[in-house]
Amino acid sequence: MNPQTIKVACSSCNLRELCMPLGLNAGELEQIDEIVGVRRKVKRGAALFRNGEVFTSLFAIRTGFFKTSIASEDGRDQVTGFQMAGEVIGLDGIVNDHHTCDAVALEDAEVCVMPFADIEALSREVSGLQRHIHKIMSREIVREHGVMLLLGSMRAEERLAAFLLNLVQRLHARGFSQSELILRMTREEIGSYLGLKLETVSRTFSKFAEDGIVEVKQRHVRILETDALRRIVNPQTLL
Amino acid sequence: MNPQTIKVACSSCNLRELCMPLGLNAGELEQIDEIVGVRRKVKRGAALFRNGEVFTSLFAIRTGFFKTSIASEDGRDQVTGFQMAGEVIGLDGIVNDHHTCDAVALEDAEVCVMPFADIEALSREVSGLQRHIHKIMSREIVREHGVMLLLGSMRAEERLAAFLLNLVQRLHARGFSQSELILRMTREEIGSYLGLKLETVSRTFSKFAEDGIVEVKQRHVRILETDALRRIVNPQTLL
DNA sequence: CGCCGCATTGACGTTCGTCAAGTCTAGTGG
DNA sequence: CCACTAGACTTGACGAACGTCAATGCGGCG
Q1: What is the model's pLDDT at position A166?
Q2: A66: how many CB neighbours lie within 10 A of its CB?
Q3: What is the distance in angstroms measured between the alpha-carbon CA of B106 and the sugar C1' of C28?
Q4: For the domain with range A10-150, which CATH number is right: 3.90.470.20, 2.102.10.10, 2.60.120.10, 1.10.287.470?
Q5: Distance from CA of A140 to the nearest CA of B (A)
Q6: CA–CA separation, B31 vs A24, rounded Å?
Q7: Do A92 and B145 touch (CB under 8 A)?
């Protein structure tokens, strides 16, 4: 609730290739810089937006880590995703001009605020931007299909293995280790995302550790046998 | 595999308000008619598109009923949605120019073929169309959040109750009964969508019937107590 | 240094999946 | 017109996986 306003430039952002389209000329890049005029800091535990709030902007994560979650009327809630640097959140708000989920920072974070009206206006001019927006939304739809497959048909070990592989792959794409990661979320949040109770998440971590597949020390995870995790997710594949 | 080509006009289509934006002037409507130049018939059991095929077009369903599903490498598959007249399918293909799921007709169907390149070009001119496309994609994202909540946190009875309420609500919006419906999909397909085995779906139907909440005769379902279904989905609410 | 939230682990219960037998129905062909 | 068949559906008995409840451990932050 303390929106810092710091002028920045996409054109010089090291996350450019993650959140912005490639192959634009100098003039187009400059126009995009205009859109992302403001950054906002979000403290750990604070919400970037909440269910019901008016939607005005998409947010590109510059630093930090978020979860998005929805709540059913009777209080249960479901984590719908974990987002890291270079990813865009807020797409849920477009359809009704109101956000339909909460976005909460799991560590101190900073986002680029992109007013959606400006995005729409500019993407009528710059077809590369238009295409990029469409792809971001389509990617989210495809990602959610994958989560539905996970929730609908996998057992606990498969879910957790898929989760770890996905996380580490995304972190690796950002220059982090392929085998070591620090979880920014609690067991309960992992469980909510995976459709499991926190105890089951904990037990499954312990099982993986017993089997020598990972080392787990609270939120610090080291993957010892990536292939073993892959085999758990996909028993058919003989790696 | 027998693409019928029949010229039609959105401007005179009775599903216009479902799949196309409102508030356009005559000239804009005419331009949209240009986009939807072709219809295609799909026989029951046939695929409109399959995972891996090149993506070129979105499809607006004119008549009939579809399921979309994805397959994990080891053969399991997950139904990701059921689509009816006025709904748009194919959004998953945008991100990689290839479809990532199968769309199969559950009864003889007819779709309007909308080449995506044309949609993008025209939506640069007609901001109402641009906005509409964004909303369709956002709506799909929000719908999938709801499915994640269902798969991640609901029990069998809650899932089936939510499923029935959702179906009947969408059918009602299309002028059908609020209380009676014919299921176009098998128990197995319902189960796949809801993350349950077909036997569990069948048992849960039987339980609802015993409790006097629905009458079930194979695929014909009559809802006797809508409020009871709502209470099952959302125990807190005292209707 | 002590507290509080998070994580782990164990014992037990519930829900749903599995396996199997049997029924219904729509469609086919005699 | 009716018998036959294949696929879909129902139902029961049983077991496995995961949830629930509860006790305990650990570590980070003030």
Answers
A1: 97
A2: 25
A3: 22
A4: 2.60.120.10
A5: 7
A6: 28
A7: yes
The answer to whether the CB of A126 falls within 8 A of the CB of B166 is no
Q: Which amino acid is at A10?
A: C
pLDDT band at A2 (very low <50, low <70, confident <90, very high): very low
Topology (CATH level 3) of domain B155-233: Arc Repressor Mutant, subunit A (1.10.10)
B67 touches strand D (CB under 7 A): no
**Three-state secondary structure string covering B93-110:** HCCCCECCCEEEEEEEEE
User: pLDDT (tens digit, 9 = 90+) per residue, A147-158?
Assistant: 999 999 999 999
Q: Report the SS3 class of residue A158.
A: helix
pLDDT category at A27 given cuts 50, 70, 90 is confident
The answer to whether residue B142 neighbours chain A at the CB level (below 8 Å) is yes
Residue whose pair of structure tokens reads 């054109």 in the numeric block: A11
- Chain B hits for A193, CB-CB cut-off 8 Å, are 152
Indicate whether B185 pLDDT > 70. yes
- Judging contacts by C-beta atoms under 8 Å, the chain A residues touching residue B70 are 145-146, 148-149
Contact B234, A72 (CB under 8 A): yes
Q: Does B163 touch chain A (CB under 8 A)?
A: no
Question: Which of the four pLDDT bands, split at 50, 70 and 90, describes residue A238?
Answer: low
- Structure confidence at residue B208 (pLDDT): 97
Alpha helices in B86-177 (DSSP H): 116-125, 127-153, 156-173
- Pairing mode, strands A57-71 and A102-115: antiparallel
Across the interface, whether the CB atoms of A234 and B74 are under 8 A apart is answered yes
The ranges assigned to domains in chain A are: 10-150, 155-233
Q: How many residues does chain B have?
A: 239
Query: Token match 């989920």: residue?
Result: A101
Q: Does A198 touch chain B (CB under 8 A)?
A: no
* Chain A residues touching B77 at Cβ < 8 A: 153
* The two structure tokens encoding residue B21: 């934006």
A33: buried, middle or exposed (CB in 10 Å: 19+, 13-18, 0-12)? middle
For strand C, is any atom closer than 7 Å to the CB of A207? no
Say yes or no to pLDDT of B3 above 50. Answer: no
A to B CB pairs, distance under 8 Å: 154
Band of pLDDT at residue B2, cut at 50, 70 and 90: very low
